[in-house]
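Example complex used in Figure S2.
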Amino acid sequence: MNPLIEFQGFNKYFGTHQVLKDIDLTVNAGEVVVILGPSGCGKSTLLRCLNGLEEAQGGSLRLAGQELLAAGTDWRQVRQRVGMVFQSYHLFGHMSVIDNLLLGPLKVQQRPRREAREQAENLLERVGLLDKRDAFPRQLSGGQQQRIAIVRALCMNPEVMLFDEVTAALDPEMVKEVLQVIQGLAEGGMTLLIVTHEMAFARAVADRIVFMEAGRILEQNDPERFFTQPRTARAQQFLEKFSFVQSLPKTLHKELS
Ligand SMILES: Nc1ncnc2c1ncn2[C@@H]1O[C@H](COP(=O)(O)OP(=O)(O)OP(=O)(O)O)[C@@H](O)[C@H]1O
Ligand SMILES: [Mg+2]
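Predicted assembly (257 residues):
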């Protein structure tokens, strides 16, 4: 076991509202952990804390042994090590795909253009979009833009990737192509922390499922166990609701889950 991410007794408040409560969570290098739980339980906040987008109040958070909650943490540097992709992809509309991809490696990491470009093109090829290298974001489908956003994060050579509902805004026919890219990263041995409402995907890709409710981790288990024999009544309810929600039109998922 080689712990890459370690939350210990981790707490987060928004004002007086405690949204993360005593979180203990370890993610080992090469592990794929999927976080599930009802809307508002704190999944996004947990990921955002790992990237310094939210400030924590108490506890410990280590990345490869380095305490991030210590004074003087260089979050700009941490963000290069922790890649994050959200529901909305935020590519720069006035820049071509390749320029979007090279921005971080050249401006932030000051890497040689040739080397960065070669890496970006290799990654584009891996996600099947090398032919879009000189296109502009508006010329791409949502699924294509999301794959570019994933490549953009990968171009920084992160140690771990965080995915927060990256397919939630996509038309159903584009979901698969994005999930396949994530599956490829998992198979390649990358450490992934994933929030998703795609249960079949979660079950297939995860080494471990973490189930949260109201800011706490209620249970953690391997996917087969979690989906067939959830330990808590709350997880059982969640899964039951899900099989119902999945038979409804996609636009209703978010409201009901
Ligand atoms: N910037 C903020 N200010 C105040 N409260 C917030 C803020 N962001 C989130 N919250 C609250 O923190 C709690 C956790 O929110 P979070 O977005 O992490 O939930 P989530 O599990 O990702 O939900 P969803 O599945 O809907 O994305 C919620 O009660 C939410 O209202
Ligand atoms: Mg969220």
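Strands lie at 3-14, 17-28, 32-36, 60-63, 66-67, 82-85, 160-164, 191-195, 208-213, 216-221. The two ends are 34 Å apart (CA to CA).
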